[in-house]
Records
---
Amino acid sequence: MCAVAARQIDRRRAERAVRELLAACGLEAEPTMAQTPALVAEALGELCSGLETTPPTLGLIPGPDGLVALDGIRFYSLCEHHLLPFFGVARIAYLPAGQVAGIGDIARLVDHLARRPAIQERLTDTLAQRLKDELKAKGVAVRLEATHLCIAMRGVRQTESRLITECQMGDMGPWSGW
Ligand SMILES: [Zn+2]
């Protein structure tokens, strides 16, 4: 399972780095961009807030063993190669073994794990593993579907393409997929 320990983002250092980035573009003296380094550093703290806090734990309650599926969980992340956003929808399904999780907790976990530089493939696996460990479910299935700005705004410029990744663990019983 991927490391999820919390660390602090050095805002001042990030601010200096953005100032340097602007200077590399010849924009360091633009009066309208004077606040940009501070604003970017602040935004980075929010976009990567998953680095600074430990993952939320799921509130579990006793429940029936019928299949549970949660669709339409919005997430936003940054690709770790270009630091450009990728964003989309997560779908989670699990086959419980005597306990179920609060649906808000599952959505919070998706949001937390997404808010850091990542690749979608690993994020999918990390999410599935974390859910499997916490829910102690018989099986877990995760599907992420996302738009990546690094292939839409640059590179191959495929504005309509979406990346779909899935990870299934354990026994999902009658589950036949999304
Ligand atoms: Zn990328």
---
Amino acid sequence: MKIQCGTCGAEQTVLNPVAVSVQCPYCDAISLLVDKEWTRTGKKSRLSQGFSRLYRGAFCRIEGVEYQIVGRVRYSFGRGFWDEWFSLTEMGKGVWITEDDHTFAVQQRVEATDITKQQGKVSLHDEVSVEGRTYRITEMGKAVCLGLEGELPKEILPDEQYDYADGTSLDGDYALGIEYDDEPPTVFIGRWIHPREITIL
Ligand SMILES: [Zn+2]
């Protein structure tokens, strides 16, 4: 799909069929898909590249699956930040790859009714069961969007914030992420991946 930037007029090709947010690669302006129309937000975003091995446009292979990175959101948690890379598989499926302190997890959205049906939020050190695995909540805080780039499947703009809770499985192998950005909250799980398990193609 080709779209025209409402701010600078540049044309860009959108790869992600479910994108609702795109950043213009020329002027950094962010547009959102509202009622099937690409609409200017008046916001711009530019991210420093940082020290990640991943970058927008990169192709990489993780556990035998090939991904193309098409976008990124960076969140602050107060003492630092983490990146969420939005990528597409060869089949066109959208997947978030979270990168926190050079550790990665390919996230999979899950129903997690134990969490979403619960009254209120989880608490620090709670143990919750998701898809047959037990996780302990290790961190809770407020995520503030520091910036974004590329094509994204969700509407998020710089400075927007939401509460989150993170957990780790009792064996330490899996990550749990709860985003209190909606009702019910959005829950993701993913196996922790060492950087050497990622091949840049
Ligand atoms: Zn533009």
